[in-house]
């Protein structure tokens, strides 16, 4: 039985990552380093880094690279963050211009140490990007802001095209997967986003012990909250100290999740082994 368990956890062929380092990849890398930008691409060990950077796109992470939470699946550093850098919004806006992005995804670490949990810097960053890049569309992948409506509205009123907040996993597995976040608080956050008039988006990872019927329950909960776009991807263990992979979900099962999600009423469902919340995000603006 132990042998079968090990075989189940061996990465299958469909998780092989194509590494490409062309001119666009080098250009993005140089701009990210020169402007002291943090990206979830590197902090999160994203499997699509080379593909996205090779297309001249990146997901920029604001508010530093140290998170106040310590979720069991996440490779971002945790601890006491550095003071807020109020010059960061302008640097991000300038970098978006240098990268010539038509669509940009902004994300952040959790900043539970701040009175506004980082909402003010979020709004400033969106505004600076729009000011310098008026034709660039913006997706924000935000924390839950503890479900506080007044903070979520600060971000929404800056008018990004999409606000995404990830549920990460099914209800049953949330306590063992996320450190402080709660399933119902995340749903409340998403409902507030949707009611603000901004496109609401969320995502989960699979392969950590969930059952298909629990994934379908997540779909129903998200749709009830007003979410239009959903992403589903395979969880990949960043290090041996993180949550273990229980199962590698087959491409066929991912396709089935996509089919059922669209049938239930989502405008977009990105479902695949290497899908991450910001993968092909430029398509979701159309929702």
**Count of alpha/pi helices:** 11
How many individual β-strands? 10
Strand-residue proportion: 5-15%
**Mean residue pLDDT:** 87
Q: Which ranges are low-confidence, i.e. pLDDT below 50, for 5 or more consecutive residues?
A: 1-8
Q: Work out the count of structural domains.
A: 1
Helix/sheet category: alpha/beta
Major beta sheet, strand line-up: 1-2-5-6-7-8-9-10
Quaternary form:
single chain
Strand/helix succession = HHEHHEEEHEHEHEHHEHEHE
* Fold-level CATH name: TIM Barrel
The CATH homologous superfamily is termed: Aldolase class I
The separation of the N and C termini measures 46 Å
Q: Sum up the overall morphology in one term.
A: globular
**Could you estimate the helical fraction of the residues in percent?**
25-40%
- Rg value: 18 Å
Q: Could you give the topology of this structure?
A:
Layout: H1 2-9, H2 23-34, E1 38-39, H3 40-43, H4 49-54, E2 59-62, E3 66-67, E4 77-78, H5 88-99, E5 103-108, H6 119-132, E6 137-141, H7 149-156, E7 162-164, H8 174-177, H9 183-195, E8 199-206, H10 212-225, E9 229-234, H11 251-264, E10 268-272
Parallel strand pairs: 2-5, 3-4, 5-6, 6-7, 7-8, 8-9, 9-10
Antiparallel strand pairs: 1-2
Helix pairs in contact: 5-6, 6-7, 9-10, 10-11
